[in-house]
Design goal:
- This protein has about 110 residues and is mainly alpha-helical.
- It has one domain.
- Helices cover about 60% and strands about 10% of the residues.
- It contains 5 helices and 3 strands, in the order αβααββαα.
- A 3-stranded antiparallel sheet has the order 1-3-2.
- Strand 2 and strand 3 form a beta hairpin.
- The termini are far apart.
Length: about 110
C-alpha cells in the first residue's frame, strides 16, 4: 500500500510541475522554448543530447542555416518527469549540493 501511495504522490508532483510551467508560460513569466544549452544547464547536457538522439524530443529551427535550435520547455519537463531520475538540478544546484555534502563526495569536488 505504501508503494502505491508513493507512486501516486510522485505522479501528482509531476503533474503539478508540468501544469505550473504551462501557467507560467501563458502568463509570460517563462519562455516557451529553451536553447539546447539552456536545457542542458537545467537537465544535464548529456541527458538532453540523448533525448534528441533517441528522438524523444525534436528541436525546432526558425531558419535553414544558422538559426538556433529551440526545445519546447513543456516537452522537456514531461521527459524529465517520466524518466527514472528523481530530480534534475541545475549545475549551480549540483555544485552547491556537492559542496554542502563534500564529506560524502570528496572525489567529485
Amino acid at each position: 500500500m505504501y508503494i502505491e501511495e508513493l507512486l501516486l504522490q510522485q505522479l501528482l508532483n509531476a503533474a503539478v510541475k508540468v501544469c505550473t510551467q504551462q501557467v507560467l508560460i501563458k502568463l509570460g513569466s517563462l519562455k516557451q522554448y529553451l536553447s539546447e544549452n539552456e536545457a542542458g544547464k537545467i537537465y544535464g547536457h548529456s541527458i538532453v543530447n540523448r533525448w534528441i538522439k533517441e528522438g524523444l524530443i525534436q528541436p525546432k529551427k526558425d531558419g535553414t542555416k544558422t538559426s538556433k535550435k529551440r526545445l519546447d520547455r513543456i516537452e522537456l519537463e514531461i521527459l524529465a518527469q517520466s524518466s527514472n531520475r528523481g530530480t534534475f538540478m541545475t549545475v549551480e544546484e549540483r555544485r552547491a549540493f556537492l559542496n554542502d555534502h563534500k564529506e560524502f563526495f570528496p572525489e567529485l569536488l
